[in-house]
Amino acid sequence: MGSTTDKIAGKANEIAGKTKQAAGKATDDPALRGKGAAQEAKGKAQVATGKVKDKLKGAVDRL
Fold this sequence. Notes:
With 63 residues, the protein is an all-alpha fold. The protein is 90% helix and 0% strand. It has two helices and no strands. The chain has helices spanning 3-26, 30-62. Helix 1 packs antiparallel against helix 2. The longest helix is centred in the C-terminal third of the chain and has 33 residues, at 30-62. The protein starts with a helix and ends with a helix.
C-alpha cells in the first residue's frame, strides 16, 4: 500500500471504529464497543504507517 492509501484506509477505519463504539454504547453492547475500539486503533496505526512512509520517501528523495 502507498502512504496515501494507508492514510485513507486508516481514517476510514478510525471513523468506522468510533461509529461501532457509539452504537455499542447506545445499545449497551460491550462486545461491539470493544470491536470498535480495536478497529479505531487499527486505523490510527494505518495513518501512522502512512506518515512514516511519507517521511522515508522524503528522506530517500533528498539523497
